[in-house]
Amino acid sequence: MTDTYDPLDFEFEEPIRISPSVPNKKKKVIGLDDLLEDHAKEQKRINERKSKRKKIKNASDSEEDEDAREKELSKCVDKCQKEMDQINDDDEMPLWGIQVFGDQRTFPALEHPEPRSCFILQSIMNNKLNSLVELTIEKGEPFLEGLLVDGWLLKLIFTQGQVEKSISTWIFNLMLYSSKEWLRKAACEFWCSILSPEVEASSSDIKIDWLPSYSDLKRALDIYGYLLDSPSKCSPDIDMIHADSDTAGPPQNIRFWIKYVAACCQVRNTHIIFSTSEAEDFLGVIISLFLDRQLLGLSMILNACMYSVISFFKEEEWHDSCERVTKSLGCRLPRDINCLRTVESISGSNGRSKHLRSAVAKQFLIRCLQEKECDAEDILRMLISINVKDKNCDLSKMYIYLAFARKFKAEYESKQKVIAKEEVLVISSALTELK
Amino acid sequence: MDNPKRVAGGAANRGLEENTMAILDTAGFNSSKISHHLNDDRLAFLEAVRCASLLSCNGTAPTSIMFEAVFQILKDEDSLALIMESYQLLVDLTKRFPRVYLSKTEKSESSSSNVKSELVVVQEAWCPFSFGLDNYNEKAVANKQLGGSVDSLSFHALLQEVVKASKERKSEVVEIKFLRNMLLLQYLIIIFEGDFLPRNSAYQENMNWTLLRESLLNMLLGSRKIIYKGFIQDCLCIMCDLSFDQTELSSEVSHDSRHSGDLSEETDTALVLALPELEKSTCTVLKKLVLMIMELDLSRSMADLQGLTTRADGVRTPVVDIILEELIYNSDILLSFLQVFDEPKWKLKVIEEYFQKYIPKSSVRTRRSNGQVKDLTFDGVLKCFSNSNSTKSIIKKLSIEVAQLLLAHAFQAYLSLSLQHLPEGGSELKEDVKGSSLAEVCKNVISAFTSLRREDKDTEILPFGKEALFTAATILLTES
């Protein structure tokens, strides 16, 4: 930096700098050193021009001039230092996280299938073999639980090729409402196995008398205390209200709820469980679950679930569905740092995930800028028009905007090279201002 | 065509590396409340790596230094968000940029359009392991600087830590370290898997033992730094502890968290929600590890038979033998092992070998083929229980409970196998399933239990046995 002798440009001491002369070579990663070099070259050129001019004007009082400049420089540095300290002190980025689950409601009572009406149990009781099993009507319930937990029920269903209604509703309710881990776990494994054919014999042969519907799953979500179904409920005060509550936060059953939704979405070919709009709704729900810090440790199953819901849609449905999901997320979620988390949580690397990620970013950006419908260029124009030097400009908001723009851009890049180029310039210059 | 893109193009990668690593640079920090910012930076770093390698259209694999940094975050951090994020990122990267994979090349001219798969090993790819010089991979060691930092000793140490933590779970407060160790273990086993599976299937095709000899798994097990038997025992321990206690634990913990007000911290709730899930997946992953070792043993014994192995390969007791020894001398573990280990093929094999040790040789003598004494099959076992004398002698050596348990579990494994092969028809039936029809086996299971009961009238049939009987009876009813 020795050859860039220009006091007024004190701020350029910082190495993270993007000059307008960024070489826009395709796909080349611009290293920080490259930027620095470019910047140095640029400065050298400017300096040379200036000094030439100066030489013509006045060559003698260059020393006095230098003193004045030095003073000016140290003043600026001090001022800058103060500002930096201020930024360090009070400008902390808020943490993401909203409470997605409030109070749990009372769980419905678990109804065991009536052993007398249960086909599976009944057939054996009249049989001579019962002398060994010693099954009675009274022992029917615990016996059924044992069959389920130890995996025998699944084997029976596969050999018989049919699940009767009383059994399937019972197991479904165990999965969603049982407080016993081993029961809900076995119940979830049962349902996932009879739905997805890969593990055991082809499940297409299995006749399932009763399939849980969308409303059954929504009801469970409601009982778990899910708050984001109506936009009005979602306010930042919500965590205040429920903070000390005994039953705030989702029950362990939410894990199986998530897994079950994932399983349902994978079997669209064999079982019609959700309609397209219902799947759209679940996609929104799954994405919103990423915002609750209580569910942070479940990100693996959430990711898997998001992936299978995204792959649920048929090719011709995807575009419109994606748009509707995006819109509803835009309405439901608060417009702050949480939006950024939302976008980042859509982390899949397949085409649809990327598309969704970009669309959600765009949607939030539009909402944040309080516009209705606009395309990429309009957004850019608006971003450029924000004056970051204005005192009223909220820098943390600006940060979020730019982060959105970047995420939204990632998808666009491949499609519209020209816009992308422009965008790089806008974003980089804005970032420069921000620093 | 579908080969993952992995451009070695140095300049671009170096630039990427510099820029992303700069995020982790702490040079600018001087305040005391630094940790919050550091965590933010690390999250931003992970996000940047994800964007650059996974989300951009032509992303390249991160450089070793970047990989190392991500791995370091998983190893050392205490923040739940960072641990989850770095784990997910590492797993996604491993999937997208595998170090070892099979490429299907169609050699139409030479081998008459036979689709042959060829094993590709990306030597320069990052790997978390370095098994040092006591292995055969000297060329690789010489060629690249090994970026990995986990050796056989530290892998075993990690395993032991998880063993310890899973034993003490009930008494202690849920710890983030336990969670982190489980995820670390899972990731490392995923690496073993990604390395072993393609090698093993390539070996099945071309019988090139070197491929498996150089597999990470084989290097780990052959390492003289660890005690192999202890290693297997630890694996079994984790599998059984994590699956067995889980039930009481999770309900207890969630109970606790509701009543002690201090635990209302979000992270604690998150841990309480996450732990049962992670314990289950850790258990599954360890099961995979044990299964891989079993498959490796199988391939190894094939290689031994064909004279492909050399003295340098050393000798190693097959894992099934070690497991059997454990099960026989430690009957506590037997019940939970049988419950957890649900891969039917190997489960049936383990149980058959268990019986083999206790059934007098004279009654085992079944068919002979190629002059070799055939292993005992499930059918053979059931036949032993059909006559009173051999039943008596078995019960004398084994307890009646163990006999019931083994029988019932073998029946369950048998059912799984027969169900798996149902759609393909009779052509590809496994040896174990061949022989008798399902109905016959059900009948034999019932008669085996009946004769057990006859020998000892006071003993109740175990619940698991009753369930097996019920299943057999119901199948008989529907079949007839």
Automatic annotation (TrEMBL), chain A:
The annotated region (Disordered) lies at 43-70
Write the protein's name: Uncharacterized protein
Q: Give the taxonomic lineage as stored in the record.
A: Eukaryota, Viridiplantae, Streptophyta, Embryophyta, Tracheophyta
TrEMBL record, chain B:
Q: Name one GO biological process term.
A: negative regulation of DNA-templated transcription
Q: Its GO CC terms?
A: nucleus; Smc5-Smc6 complex
Give the InterPro entries listed for this entry. SNI1 (IPR034561)
Molecular-function GO term, any one? transcription cis-regulatory region binding
Q: What is this protein called?
A: Negative regulator of systemic acquired resistance SNI1
Source organism of this protein record: Fraxinus pennsylvanica
